[in-house]
Amino acid sequence: MVEPEFTADESPSKTKRFVEWQLTILASMYAGYAAFMLCRNTLISSSAAMMLDPSLDLDKESFGHLMSWHSAGAIAGKLVTGPGADWLGGRRMFLLALSLTAMANVGFAFGGSFAVFALMNFLGQFAKSGGWPAMTKMVGSWYPEHRYGQVWSLISTSSRVGTIGAGLVLGFALSLVSWRSIFLLSAAITLVVVAVLFFFLKEEPSDVGLPPLAEPTPPLAEPTSRLAEPKSRLAEPKSRLAEPKSRLAEPKSLGDDANASRADHVLDSANWHEALTAFARSGRFWSIGFGIVFLTIMMDFLVFIPIYLSESLGISGSAASMAGSSFPAGMFAALLLTSFVYDNLSKRTLVWALGGMLTLGCGCVIALSNLAFVSESIRSPVAIAVLFLLGLSISPAYYVPMSVFSVRFGGKHSGMLVSLIDVFGYCGAMLFNFFGGSIAEHYGWSVFLTGLLAISCLATLLMTTFLALDARSARLDIEAA
Predict the structure, then answer these.
(1) Where residue 306 falls among pLDDT bands split at 50, 70, 90?
(2) What is the torsional sign of CA 304, 337, 82, 207?
(3) What distance in Å separates the CA atoms of residue 214 and residue 212, rounded to the nearest whole number?
(4) Which fold has domain 12-210+277-480?
């Protein structure tokens, strides 16, 4: 599935062992991130039941405010855990973040006021935010570039597994025990996962006695004079950053050279300030950043789905939680398909493919806005089917391009880059959660969904712009080569 890149003198037995460890690392990250999402979605799965608890005095408005603390924690966490993953390494950050996320759920279970819930939600998301930057470090060490799309697609399905598990397993458990016990259950499962990953998750091949990915080969567009330079690239601090069509635009896309190692990346010799300067000068960074703002808001519609289904369809909180699992189920299906095709599509084809899927997402929001015109006898299955299609249409554009771009463009600063892009998204989600609940509470779901439609259209426009710029950059690099 994800073959290693060895030099010619490596033995077949080492190649086989490398593949086995690649699969082990992939499975470890998969299980770990599913546990992250299980903890993250415990509050969402319990939301309808919590609003029925008279001792809490929660409504849609206060729940939206609570979820805005969720986004605030993610923003603060990304600013710390992104550089932290670059400093500590992926394995340490991953295990630390997962452990603290579970402990925040324990704290939530014993909370009794809005202030405690807000604090635990903030701390839980602060910790969880370290998961994705940590994985960018391990993906860069363990997998060749021409497999990035496949690897990230597969890892992204783990987030949907965790979300579906939260909706189905925790939703079912909610019919048997109190909502507080649900938080303890998800924390216990997560701590078991941490204990297992301690033995199987490794930072890089050298940790298990394997050589790194194959030695670098000169990039096709590297001028001969530059190859002859005896000193490091830090000797050219300004000219390289200012090049409009330099390798900063896509340092490893020149012919998709899978053998280029991380040591050959132009930003590996740059400090964090130089890396930030390179990011700020990239049109793709800004277009995907603002695109992720609106895509994250669409993804965070999941926060309100159990409440929306409970009120719109007149079903119980546990039933609404299980029915809402159709949204992440659609995401799972799309990401699984994406893992087989993403790396085989040209960047130009991706513009049309992902742009078309996001357009389908706009249509799904329109359909949700008009459920009232559907016969009551089929309204529930129609709502579930539309939510499935909505998840199917937006998840590939949300998860994969950002992750692939961060590893390729960021080099050793990939953790910081993916965190910065995520900060864009969580800032939008924080505003959406704070005001979205108030809008639904005071103006109804029709106004709420009208705003969501406008957001989905902006997400389509901006992500298509990023994909077009990315395709243009790759084409210019190939022409230069």
Answers:
(1) confident
(2) positive
(3) 6
(4) Growth Hormone; Chain: A; (1.20.1250)
Listed as own residue / partner, the contacts of 181-185 with beta carbons closer than 8 Å and 24 or more positions apart are 181/109, 182/42, 182/45, 182/46, 183/42, 183/46, 183/105, 183/106, 183/108, 183/109, 184/105, 184/106, 184/109
Which tens digit of pLDDT belongs to each residue from 377-406? 777 788 889 889 998 898 888 888 887 788
Strand (E) or helix (H) holding 93: helix 90-109
Query: Residue 349: pLDDT above 60?
Result: yes
224, pLDDT greater than 50:
no
Q: How far is CA 381 from CA 166, 256, 324, 374, in A?
A: 20, 44, 11, 11
Average pLDDT, rounded, for the chain: 76
Which pLDDT does position 260 carry in this prediction? 38
Residue extents of the structural domains in the chain: 12-210+277-480
Give the integer Cα–Cα distance in Å for 147 and 3: 9
The span from the CA of 302 to the CA of 164, in Å, is: 11
CB within 8 Å of 183: residues ≥ 6 apart: 42, 46, 105, 106, 108, 109
Angle at 473 between CA 148 and CA 26, to 5 degrees: 5
pTM: 0.60
Question: What's the token pair of residue 401?
Answer: 């391009």
CA distances from 470 to 222, 249, 253 (A): 20, 9, 10
Three-state secondary structure readout of 164-192 = HHHHHHHHHHHCCCCHHHHHHHHHHHHHH
Chain centre distance of CA 251: 23
Confidence (pLDDT) at 263: 47
| CB 126 within 8 Å of CB 6 | no
- H/E run at residue 290: helix 283-299
Concatenating the DSSP letter of every residue in 369-380 gives: HTGGGS-HHHHH
